[in-house]
Design goal:
Blueprint (H helix, E strand, L loop, with lengths): L1 H19 L1 H22 L5 E2 L5 E2 L1 H31 L2 H7 L6 H27 L7 H25 L6 H18 L11 H7 L4 H13 L8 H21 L8
Antiparallel strand pairs: 1-2
Helix pairs in contact: 1-5, 2-3, 2-5, 3-5, 3-6, 3-7, 3-9, 5-6, 6-9, 6-10
C-alpha cells in the first residue's frame, strides 16, 4: 500500500509539472491535433488513401490513427527519456535512491503519468476527428484504441529507459527523442501514404515499434470489420517492450553519468 500511495503521488506530481509547462502540452497534444487538421485538409481532395493492409481509407481515418501513434511515441518515448535523464544528471535520482521512498516508485510514477497523458491524447484526437470531420466511431474502436495505446506506452517507455544509459544529458535526449519520432513517422506511414514509399522501407519499418501501432490504429478507425486485435502489432510491441525493460533492469543507473 505504501508503494502504491507513493507511486500515485509521484504520478500526480509529474502531471502537475506537465500541465505547468506550455511547451510540453503543445508538443504532446496540441501539435498532433494541429497536424491532423492541416493534413486532413490538404489530402481531403485526393479521396481515399491506400493503407498498409491494402484497402482504401479516408484521409481523416489515416491521419487520426497515424498521428495518434506519433503523439504517443513523441510524448512517451521523448518525455520519459528527457525527464529521467534530467533528474539523474541533476542528482535527483541519487537522492530518491537514498531516501525511504521505494526505488521503483519514481519510475512507475512516470509510467502511470504517461498512461494518463496518452489516454488524454487519444480522447482529444478522436473527438476532433469525430466532431469536426465526421469520422464514424464505434465503441469497439474506442476500446481497441485504448488497448493499442497502453501497449504503445509500454513499448516506448521501455525503449526510453533502456536508452538512458547511453544518453548522458538532457540536451542530447531532447534532440534524439524528437528526431527518432519524426524519422520513424516518415517511414511508418504516419505522414506519407505507404504506397508512396519504397517497399523495402515499409517492410523494414514493420519490425520497428511505430509502424505496427500506427497501422493498427488506422485500420480500426477505417474498417468496420477490423477486429481490434492485430497479432503482429501485439507481438512486435511486446517484444520491444520486454527487451527494453530487460536492458533497463540490467543497465539503469541512478547516478549521474556526466562528470
Amino acid at each position: 500500500m505504501r508503494f502504491l500511495r507513493i507511486t500515485v503521488a509521484q504520478a500526480a506530481y509529474n502531471l502537475r509539472a506537465y500541465l505547468r509547462s506550455m511547451r510540453t502540452v503543445v508538443m504532446g497534444i496540441v501539435m498532433p491535433v494541429g497536424l491532423l487538421v492541416v493534413l486532413s485538409w490538404v489530402f481531403a481532395h485526393q479521396g481515399q488513401i491506400l493503407a498498409v493492409a491494402g484497402y482504401p481509407m479516408s484521409a481523416t481515418a489515416f491521419y487520426t490513427g497515424g498521428l495518434t501513434a506519433y503523439g504517443l511515441m513523441l510524448g512517451t518515448f521523448t518525455g520519459v527519456m528527457v525527464s529521467v535523464i534530467s533528474a539523474r544528471e541533476a542528482g535527483w535520482l541519487k537522492r530518491f535512491r537514498g531516501s525511504p521512498m521505494p526505488a521503483g516508485s519514481y519510475l512507475f510514477g512516470q509510467i502511470i503519468f504517461n498512461v494518463l497523458i496518452s489516454i488524454a491524447l487519444v480522447v482529444v484526437m478522436i473527438a476532433v476527428a469525430t466532431l469536426v470531420y465526421g469520422l464514424p466511431m464505434r465503441l469497439f474502436a474506442l476500446w481497441s484504441m485504448f488497448c493499442y495505446s497502453l501497449l504503445g506506452v509500454f513499448a516506448f517507455t521501455a525503449i526510453a529507459l533502456a536508452l538512458t544509459r547511453v544518453i548522458t544529458s538532457a540536451e542530447m535526449a531532447s534532440t534524439v527523442g524528437p528526431f527518432a519520432a519524426i524519422t520513424l513517422s516518415f517511414t511508418s506511414g504516419v505522414f506519407l501514404p505507404p504506397d508512396l514509399m519504397p517497399h523495402w522501407l515499409t517492410s523494414a519499418s514493420s519490425y520497428l515499434p511505430l509502424e505496427p501501432l500506427a497501422q493498427s490504429m488506422q485500420s480500426v478507425l477505417a474498417n468496420a470489420n477490423a477486429g481490434g486485435f492485430d497479432p503482429r502489432t501485439y507481438l512486435v510491441l511486446t517484444a520491444w517492450g520486454v527487451a527494453g525493460f530487460a536492458v533497463a533492469v540490467l543497465t539503469f543507473s541512478w547516478q549521474p553519468q556526466r562528470v
